Amino acid sequence: MTTPPVRARDLGFLLHDWLDLEALLAYPHFQDHSVETVDAMLDIAGRVAADTFLTHYKAADSQEPHLVEGQVRILPAIHQALAAFAEVGMFAAPFDAEVGGLQLPQLAYSAAMAQFMAANVATSAYPMLTTGNAKLLVRYASEALVKACALPEIEGRYFGTMCLSEPQAGSSLADIATRAVPDGDDGLGARYRLFGNKMWISGGDQDASENIIHLVLAKVPGPDGKLIPGTQGISLFVVPKVLVEGSEYAGQRNDVVVAGLNHKMGYRGTANCLLNFGEGAHYRPGGLAGAVGYRVGGMGQGLPIMFQMMNSARISVGLGAAMLGYRGYRLAVDYARDRRQGRPIGGRGGPPIAIIDHPDVRRLLLAQKAYAEGALALVLYCARLVDEELHGPAEGRDEAAGLLSLLTPIAKTWPSEWGLAANDLAIQVHGGYGYTRDFDVEQLYRDNRLNPIHEGTTGVQGLDLMGRKTLKDDGASLATLRHRVTATVERARHLPALADFAHVLDVTWARIGALVGHLKAAGDDVASLAQATSFLSAFGHAVVAWQWLDQAVVAGSLAATDDPDETAFRAGKLAACRFFFETEVPRVDVWLGIVGRRSDLTQTFDPAGF
Amino acid sequence: MTTPPVRARDLGFLLHDWLDLEALLAYPHFQDHSVETVDAMLDIAGRVAADTFLTHYKAADSQEPHLVEGQVRILPAIHQALAAFAEVGMFAAPFDAEVGGLQLPQLAYSAAMAQFMAANVATSAYPMLTTGNAKLLVRYASEALVKACALPEIEGRYFGTMCLSEPQAGSSLADIATRAVPDGDDGLGARYRLFGNKMWISGGDQDASENIIHLVLAKVPGPDGKLIPGTQGISLFVVPKVLVEGSEYAGQRNDVVVAGLNHKMGYRGTANCLLNFGEGAHYRPGGLAGAVGYRVGGMGQGLPIMFQMMNSARISVGLGAAMLGYRGYRLAVDYARDRRQGRPIGGRGGPPIAIIDHPDVRRLLLAQKAYAEGALALVLYCARLVDEELHGPAEGRDEAAGLLSLLTPIAKTWPSEWGLAANDLAIQVHGGYGYTRDFDVEQLYRDNRLNPIHEGTTGVQGLDLMGRKTLKDDGASLATLRHRVTATVERARHLPALADFAHVLDVTWARIGALVGHLKAAGDDVASLAQATSFLSAFGHAVVAWQWLDQAVVAGSLAATDDPDETAFRAGKLAACRFFFETEVPRVDVWLGIVGRRSDLTQTFDPAGF
């Protein structure tokens, strides 16, 4: 029998017991679904993930994407896996029925994706990008573009990319130099010719889909021929690899070429490309150089529109990071149960014991559990907010949107940083074996190292959280969060095993609230923002502490059971919560202390001293 | 001109200004050396490291050791590098003149090795193991064995290994099952035939040296033919790959075969083997199966003798880890100076600035500097203790030996954990580029991930520090350490920039002292030892905090200078000290809190809940 990469009870607890999926399914938008249909979908996802994604995890690492005559070839097993993914409707799952989708809640879709990501994060990147790409088009593009580009993506026939970074402009999109020159219009609307280079394009080329839909940020030159400095000049363009129906050049190969492949430490199954647009050397649609693209959204609106996709991608990065941490954790548990070595401290003689019985190994496993399951919970919580924002009762939508916005930098960063930490500990549990490529944990660790970098580094997320989402915000979403924390605290206060943690959590959030007030009153945001990463670390741990306490409250409040597995499962949730409060929450004060002191060291230090 | 992998001033400050190498050179044992000869040696080491070790860093990663007809082949560039290493006398450097050595102080030798390790840690592992091997033989083996095995190692013609672990016994040496059966004696002394498998043998086979001298732990069966359980039955044997002069079977290939190579995440240049002893299938010295070995030291004395080599290897692991962190730090500084991206927060327009001018990037660099230079300082401090123990004034030798023993688990672990953390941050400074194999930082990170595992995992070091070195110790060495800390505190109190840190350090060590007293009084070492890793973390940070303050005191007390580079250098030392106290020292209280609470979670939790 196929073992799914994520334990059904782990997902079931979060979806049903903790996040009350049933209540979501009562929204009119989800009326065609029931707990049973969702569980069936999750079951199918688990099987397909195990049978087609997990099976080529190592092969895709050792047999990297490569160029053959300018075309990227990826492992055939990836083709097959993505065909199976399409076959069971996973590309269509999160879309509305009117564009051919299954109209599944984001929460349920995320739980399904969690299994694919646990099985193979690099292969999962192709549908993740394709779905985000199509979602953007469905929301912002003309009917003709949706029909020509998004619908084939929803069917899984075309894949999508996001082309933002350039070699000289990664985090700093204001400096992009790709030009989009007006070129009349055709059946797909306002047409442009694009010229420039895009770096770090995941799925930028591959041979698994019929076509590739690039979403490209570029600047339209002003009347003086110059690009507008800053982000205001950025617009968004659809640039298909092969021009699509409705285009004057339908069927012609577009002027987009792969200039090179990046050879990464991990995440190798995802082809990552440097793309040249508008070279004119190999392909000239209509006989002219310039990549043909169609504008989506208004002039200069490229960045805000792209950020719809980016925010969703950030949460997806968090999910992938969580699942890498999760899979390493499960592998480490299995290894620790099987591997026998050493004796109990203070014991005498006898045969070696399973290493899971050494307290320090249990510490390594509890930490992984706290990080991985905490990260998964966080991301699924955000997925539920997406559903509440888009389809929930009208009066709650703004609150959900605000809270989601506040939590997005956490949902991206916390799983990335701590999922990686979990993978580090999974290697440690395996000892020397974990350092070899005979086991998966070293690859999980290499794969996960990407996550604190792409779609906005940890430093960038810190600036977002502390700047835009806190110092420059009216505080309503922080108040919402605080309100939800307090509700958890009130429930936990009455449970003897959790009352102490409830108190600690309350004090921690009071301290965060006071610090935010203090920083706002102090002014000089530059001085505050120099501590943004520590603020992000503190805030992230405090959010996860809240959710761990909430998970523990729920686990401790379920109907009595005689099932020993279920009893052990609930005890595990309580233990992870306890571990988090005993071992992790004390770090919050350290980070808050750093933020509160606002040391000027990093601002004033002369880098000649490095 | 060749740029050495370690800046001369970084080494010079630690050796001369901080650790007073000149005072060491006044010991009679080192009378043939002077500051000038040592500096000349360091200069040569830096050039050879740059010209022969650094040059194949990436090649040795992508072209792994491989088996050809049972023989391990390693990259020819490694042969050439090690020949150059031998050529300049580096194999001989730390040995006494009477065995052909240069009689260099361990401190100076370590500073030289630091450069080779910074350039290429995997290639440096061969001489590191060879030197440790020969040192053990010189101290414990017969004259005949020294002549036949150690002297060619000191010349760099033979390389050495240490064969401890077995597939079923890594950290738990009591469970080794390799048998050594008496086989008469010959010109090399008591002869045995060994039968068993040894795992994780670095340099276990290679084609760069004329011969390989294995030091093998094995058990001699008792009269009943059974092995003595536990570590008491372990003896130590010299097992040459090709039998050496004095042996009845001189010139014959010994019955040691490579059963397999481990394919590692990093550190790939070091061939890591599973060795089978005594298979009798390919080689039968004297016509009989069984690997021929000669006992070194008394029956059952194998482990204490091997731990001489192991303790030295642990400090070498710390040095390698420090230098991986150091090299990543220097690469990150160079990258951050060159790479232009973004604008100052709160600034408007203008061209992109060098990322070294972003406060968060400076934070990433200061952390790396604090970790890498702190780790290097720690290891060199321990190297000086080796010289004090072996060759210093008689009245100080016991104190040096005791302090070295106390600090060894720190010197192994702290650089391993925090050097790796530095490499993680070096990748982050490089952004996406750092995740590609076009830059060295991802390899440094992969290489360094081994260090918390081999030669005793972090968990094992924690048990050593808290158990043997603290709870079961009379406290004399901790008192020595405390005394040295207090001396630094007294000096720092009078420097306005450091007075606050002096106070914090004093309080921190008082808290550690009180905690140790409390734990000893409380009894139940099992409960305390469940927190051993947190104790190790706290202790390590407190030791490095002390040494950073001490470095800062020295940097602040040097004669005035007009040299802007020197001024910047000293400001850098003060800034790193300040960073460590502002950002790192607060963590100590978190770890001490965990230790002090002695939670029973990891002891009582039923692992069915994982």
UniProtKB/TrEMBL annotation, chains A, B:
Domain called Acyl-CoA dehydrogenase/oxidase C-terminal: residue spans: 300-464
Ranges where the Acyl-CoA dehydrogenase/oxidase N-terminal domain occurs: 79-145
Pfam family, one: Acyl-CoA_dh_M
Key words, A-Z: FAD, Flavoprotein, Oxidoreductase
Ranges of residues in domain Acyl-CoA oxidase/dehydrogenase middle: 162-277
Gene3D superfamilies: Acyl-CoA dehydrogenase/oxidase, N-terminal domain, Butyryl-CoA Dehydrogenase, subunit A, domain 2, Butyryl-CoA Dehydrogenase, subunit A, domain 3
Transmembrane segments: none
Span of domain Acetyl-CoA dehydrogenase-like C-terminal: 484-599
Cofactor or coenzyme needed: FAD
Family annotation (InterPro entries): Acyl-CoA_dh-like_C_dom (IPR025878), Acyl-CoA_Oxase/DH_mid-dom (IPR006091), Acyl-CoA_Oxase/DH_mid-dom_sf (IPR046373), AcylCo_DH-like_C (IPR036250), AcylCo_DH/oxidase_C (IPR009075), AcylCoA_DH/ox_N (IPR013786), AcylCoA_DH/ox_N_sf (IPR037069), AcylCoA_DH/oxidase_NM_dom_sf (IPR009100)
Any GO MF annotation of the entry: oxidoreductase activity, acting on the CH-CH group of donors
Domain of life: Bacteria
Matches recorded under SUPFAM superfamilies: Acyl-CoA dehydrogenase C-terminal domain-like, Acyl-CoA dehydrogenase NM domain-like
PANTHER family: ACYL-COA DEHYDROGENASE (PTHR42803), ACYL-COA DEHYDROGENASE-RELATED (PTHR42803:SF3)
Family to which the UniProt record says this protein belongs: Belongs to the acyl-CoA dehydrogenase family.
Name under which the protein is recorded: Alkylation response protein AidB-like acyl-CoA dehydrogenase
Naturally occurring in which organism (per UniProt): Nitrospirillum amazonense
